[in-house]
Structure formats: structure tokens, C-alpha cells
Amino acid sequence: MTPSSIDPAALSRAFSLPTRVYWEDTDAGGVVYHAQYLAFLERARTEWMRAQGHGQETLRLEHDLVFAVRAMRIDFRKPARLDDALLATVSLRQCRRASLVVAQSILRDGELLLDAEVRIAALDASTFRPRAIPEPLYQALNRLVEPGADPE
Fold first, then answer.
1. Rounded to 5 degrees, what are φ and ψ at 117?
2. 3-state SS string for 96-146
3. Domains of the chain: total
4. Which of 100, 110, 123, 146 has the fewest Cβ atoms nearer than 10 Å?
5. Does any domain span residue 3?
6. Which CATH number covers residue 123?
């Protein structure tokens, strides 16, 4: 993969969420403010979980489980600008007993603007202490780990 593009085969396997850059997402120069990328990534992860049948509220109410970002590595490669149509992607790289590692990217017309590795902890919704992912969910998530990704 070149620094400014992404492997088309990997993109076709990844979940993707279209989004548009609005005025509120930008600085005075019309460039996306760096912190706003976190919101784009969060929305994509949330919609990815919802697409798997595991919305955030369902996880909290039925399993007393929440997922929280523990660490994130972000490479800002090129800026997004006002009115850009973007695609935020999500690929599951690892599913451990109490954590996930997710690869994400933001693209504009197939051009890589940002890539990130997000480490996510499974927490008890009542106490916010680490906990194991419930077995049925753990099994379902493990089936989504991208081929060639690091095993648990």
C-alpha cells in the first residue's frame, strides 16, 4: 500500500460509512479540524457494530457491556476540506477476551487521508471495569476478524 492509497481488496472487505464535511467540522480555513476525525471514526465504529446487530444501547441493556477506546494511533496523511464526501472504514484486526483492535481509515475518492489503529476495551457498563466479552458476541466478532490479521 502506498502512503496515499489503500488496497482495494481490503477496502471491499471493510465496513464503510459515507459522510460529508460540513462547516462545523472545519477550522476558519475550511480544513477539517483534527479532533473532528475522531467523531467520524467513532460514528463508523458505532454503525459497524449496529450493522452486526449489536447496537450500543442493546449491548448496554442486554449485556451490561460498553466498549471504550483505550488507545489510538492516528496518521494524518492529507487534509479533508469543506464539502468533501468522505468514506470512513472499519476492519476488525483482533478480538481478544476483553478487547478489540480495529483498523480504520478515512478516504476521499479512494485517496487515503487518515488511517488509525484503535484499541478498544470491553467494560462492565455499571462499574466501567474491564470484563470479558459475552461468549456469543465474542464468537460473532471473531468471525469478523480480517483474514491475515493477528490472532488473539
1. -115, 125
2. CCCEEEEEEEEEECCEEEEEEEEEEEEEECCCCCECCCCHHHHHHHHCCCC
3. 1
4. 110
5. no
6. 3.10.129.10
Q: Give the pLDDT score at 6.
A: 52
Q: Read off the pLDDT of residues 116-134 as tens digits, 9 standing for 90 and up.
A: 999 999 999 999 999 999 9
Rounded Cα–Cα distance for residues 88 and 76 (Å) = 14
C-alpha cell of residue 127: 462499574
Rounded distance, CA 64 to CA 34, Å? 32
Output b/e per residue, 17-27; b: 16+ Cβ within 10 A: bebebeeebbe
State the pTM of this model: 0.87
Give rounded-to-5 percent helix, strand, coil for the chain.
Answer: 25, 40, 35
| Structural element, H or E, at residue 65 | strand 65-76
Measured CA to CA in angstroms, residue 68 lies from 9, 14, 147 at distances of 29, 21, 24
Residue closest to 118 by CA, chosen among 66, 76, 75, 71: 71
For the annotated catalytic residues, the residue numbers are 27
Domain of residue 98, residue span: 8-142
Which residue is it, cell 480495529?
A: 102
